[in-house]
Write a structure and sequence with these properties.
Layout lengths: L4 E6 L5 H9 L4 E7 L3 H10 L4 E3 L3 H4 L6 E4 L6 H10 L3 E5 L6 H14 L3 E4 L6 H11 L6 E11 L8 H17 L4 E9 L9 E8 L4 E7 L1 E13 L3 E5 L6 E12 L13 E11 L8 H15 L7 H11 L5
Parallel strand pairs: 1-2, 1-4, 2-3, 4-5, 5-6, 7-10
Antiparallel strand pairs: 7-11, 8-9, 9-10, 11-12, 12-13, 13-14
Length: 333
């Protein structure tokens, strides 16, 4: 049975070099080829990693039968076409987020990968973050009680994109995390509010409000036009509350805070006919757990290889990718 994969990568723009670095340092694969249309970016990779073959011709990857899997890190508009070509060449594929531009395109990728018995995975890297996984464990163990609402902020001054708006650029991270934490609950309504200030027709700031049928609210605020750099999510539960701050040294803080409803008994101390209540404002300790750090991108790539080599169930497969894109498209189905 094969224990080491031959891999190629398409695209080495803004995020691509991080993928290349992880692939080069992963002893479960050999990164044989990198395809990039920009000569400057090809030379950049060649100078860093002289042993990697660089090319501008995608067919050098598609027609190479020695390559087992391909990483796609190109503009969103190219994801679907490239993914289908890779799958048709009988290679597994890991596609940077979002997997495609529409849910219909993701469905076609899912069908093709199933037909070919290949792995098609989306790079929702934050789901491989140890802090996100730790919070998922807290939720599953009912440490937080009933989840009431979640709100997130992903803000900065830049980096401005011209191929997608701030929602499609930034919100896939938070949507994928919320869906993962809550086990993909059924959605009741989605409301969107955004505005373009820097580039006409491309929203720089967006607010997305999701109401789930189990009475959980989620609010997502994203912007590349903000004075603060913030990467924070807050979960309010009936027992405890949690803050996940991705740019803090202490990424997870658990607050023993809440409001408890307490019955006030009448003169006859009748427990069966209580209709008056008081509220206990609970404010306990803050716990900062010790979480072992592993680079999420490394964990994501390892999981991709686990799915290929060991048949592990894919955490961020096309089904997961489809739901995220449906929400981004303001589709409640």
């Amino acid at each position: 049975m094969k224990t080491k994969l031959n891999v190629a990568q398409i695209g080495v723009g803004y995020w691509g070099p991080n993928l290349v670095r992880n692939l080069v340092n992963n002893d479960r694969c050999d990164l044989l080829k990198v395809c990039e249309i920009s000569k400057d970016r090809r030379n950049f990779i060649k100078n860093l990693y002289p042993k990697i073959h660089t090319t501008f011709n995608i067919n050098e990857i598609l027609n190479d039968n020695d390559i087992d899997a391909v990483i796609i890190a190109t503009p969103v508009s190219t994801h679907y076409d490239l993914a289908m070509k890779v799958l048709n060449s009988n290679k597994h594929v890991l596609i940077e987020k979002p997997m495609a531009q529409t849910a219909q395109e993701v469905e076609k990728i899912e069908i093709k990968s199933s037909e070919k018995k290949l792995i098609a995975m989306v790079g929702h890297t934050f789901l491989y973050n140890p802090a996100v996984k730790y919070i998922k464990k807290l939720i599953n163990e009912n440490t937080l009680g009933k989840i009431r609402y979640i709100y997130s902020q992903r803000l900065n001054l830049g980096r401005i994109r011209s191929d997608v708006n701030a929602l499609w650029n930034l919100a896939p991270h938070d949507i994928s995390i919320i869906q993962y934490w809550l086990d993909n609950p059924e959605i009741q309504t989605i409301k969107y509010s955004g505005e373009s200030y820097v580039q006409k027709g491309i929203d720089d700031v967006a607010f997305l409000n999701i109401k789930y049928k189990n009475k959980i609210l989620a609010n997502i605020h994203v912007s590349w036009l903000d004075p603060h750099k913030i990467r924070k999510m807050t979960i309010v539960g009936s027992k405890k509350m949690v803050v996940y701050d991705d740019i803090s040294n202490n990424k997870v803080s658990i607050f023993d805070k809440g409001i408890d409803k307490m019955a006030v008994l009448g003169e006859n101390m009748d427990f069966d006919n209580v209709n008056t209540f008081s509220y206990d404002y609970r404010s306990g300790n803050i716990k900062i757990p010790d979480i072992k750090w592993i680079e999420p991108l490394k964990a994501e790539i390892d999981h991709f290889f686990d799915c290929i080599l060991d048949g592990q169930e894919c955490l961020t497969d096309a089904k997961h990718a489809k739901k995220v894109i449906q929400i981004l498209s303001l589709n409640e189905s």
